[in-house]
Amino acid sequence: MTTVAPVDGVGPLLRNWRERRRVSQLELALRADSSARHISYVETGRSRPSEEMVLRLAEHLDVPMRDRNALLVAAGYAPRYTETPLDAPAMGALRQGIEQLLSGYDPYPALVVDGRYDVVAANRGVTALLDGVAAHLLAPPLNAMRLTLHPDGLAPRIRNLREWRAHLLAQMERDLAPARSQPLRALYEEVAAYPAPAGPEDAAEGAEEGLGAGCPAAYRALALPMRLEHDGRVLTFVSSIATFNTPMDVTVAELAIETLLPADPETAAYLRSR
């Protein structure tokens, strides 16, 4: 994904981010030690913000690093943050750390995705769950959204697909920022067009298998579980996502480590037995 400057300048982009964050001009001005009038002038193109002001506003609007570069370019400045390929020699220590982290989660599934939800690393716990997934979905680059929601992927085996699908689509919608909307929007429209589950879902399913009985109700108030059929069983997971703290590179900023933690003792015991 590349940084593209819109022809309308930085004002509409900043206004879009402010509205997405549901922050008023006055509130943003107070946060950024500015004035509501100046924020208004910037958004309407009557005033050109300094490079420092662009970065300050981006900070207070929690704008992702790639989109901060886009704001700078739109304002007429050079991008501030580099984008180093993950396979570059300079990323060697990071790759090694990721591999150690994923190995440490075995036998529980863990994977790393980039800003397009492409899988850049995964442990054996993930590959074990991919039995039966169509070959065309396993061809690189693997995409986590396609693997999960495609009818030839995990979707037919997810017992609470309607809930899990809604959760993933909402997550993608939150990531549809202006500067990188084109590739992500294409992916969103693709996976949103996959067949949606028909009929009600039974959150109490699983008791007859002896696995995860009562677990969905126990976790529902805390986190949405994913209930996945596998090898004649129903495994129940809760998902945890971690990112790198204070990244200074776009590639690092967009990496997300997702772990699927067992939501009941039966799922944990089964994974350890493998």
Automatic annotation (TrEMBL):
Domain of life: Bacteria
Domain named HTH cro/C1-type: residues: 14-68
Gene3D superfamilies according to UniProt: 3.30.450.180, lambda repressor-like DNA-binding domains
MF-aspect GO terms: DNA binding
Name of this chain's protein: Transcriptional regulator
Protein's organism: Streptomyces solincola
Organism lineage string: Bacteria, Bacillati, Actinomycetota, Actinomycetes, Kitasatosporales
